[in-house]
Amino acid sequence: MDDVLIVIALLLVAAAATTAVLVRDPAQQALTLSLLGLTLAVLFTVLQAPDVAMSQLAVGSALTPLLVLLSVHKVRRRSRAEEPTESKGEKR
């Protein structure tokens, strides 16, 4: 029974990792990265490593995707602020 749970958890991790690689939008990548962190936490729990699972939940499922989302938001906001000057026909 334990082997079946490990195989299922590994398949879920592989599917989540593949999805994170294939998604092109950075905001969606952050969400799939969060899902990957959650599936890794499940895998660590199945492998009887609860301390690693709790760390993975905190860092991999919450903090890292949050930092990616904040970075994407700041870059998009900065690029929108620069667009009007370039669209008026000014060239460098």
Observed structural traits:
92 residues, single chain, 3 helices
Helix fraction, binned, reads over 70%
Number of strands: 0
Largest sheet: none
Distance between the termini: 66 Å
Strand content: under 5%
Counting H and I runs of at least 4 residues, what is the number of helices? 3
Q: Can you tell me the residue ranges where pLDDT is under 50 for at least 5 consecutive residues?
A: none
Which structural class do the helices and strands define?
mainly alpha
In terms of quaternary structure, the protein is single chain
Task: Give the structure's gist in a few sentences.
By secondary structure, this protein is mainly alpha-helical.
Layout of helices and strands, plus pairs?
Elements lengths: L1 H21 L3 H21 L3 H38 L5
Could you explain how this protein is built, in words?
By secondary structure, the protein is mainly α. 87% of the residues lie in helices and 0% in strands. The chain has helices at residues 2-22, 26-46, 50-87. Helix 1 runs antiparallel to helix 2. The longest helix has 38 residues, at 50-87. It is elongated, with a radius of gyration of 19 Å.
